[in-house]
Design brief:
132 residues, alpha+beta, Glutaredoxin, globular
């Protein structure tokens, strides 16, 4: 079996953190320490074995900051799907995201009830792409 197939078979939970035009923008959201949030996410990922990626724009700018929690391979096999979280700007939301990702994320662990209040519908393009 080649390495790419092995890596895909063991892919951990992944956080995709929007850091585009609105998300992560200190001019638009000066009360949030966006750099500190990203540092916390990356430090926890190194400690707990999940991954963190950044992207320029996920789309729902009116719900910034947006984080997508993608399931691990095991989570996906258990029925977990990418979960979109909006308004992820304070420490409580960040703590909940970190706890859920450390526990395994979608399909593997139940999200904290308070985090479920932050779940948002992905943009149409993301929903259509997920059906392919």
């Amino acid at each position: 079996m080649n390495r790419a197939v092995i890596r895909a078979a063991n892919r951990p939970c992944t956080l995709v953190v929007c850091r585009g035009c609105c998300c992560g923008n200190p001019r638009k959201y000066p009360g949030t320490d966006h750099a500190w949030q990203l540092e916390r996410l990356r430090a926890a990922a190194a400690e707990h074995g999940f991954q963190v990626r950044t992207t320029d724009c996920l789309g729902p700018c009116d719900q910034a900051n947006v984080i997508v929690v993608q399931p691990s391979t095991a989570g996906r096999q258990a029925g977990g799907r990418a979960t979109w979280i909006g308004f992820a700007m304070d420490d409580d939301v960040t703590d909940d995201v970190l706890r859920w990702a450390a526990d395994g994320g979608p399909g593997t662990a139940k999200p904290p009830a308070t985090l479920e209040l932050q779940f948002i519908r992905p943009p149409r393009e993301a929903r259509l792409g997920a059906r392919r």
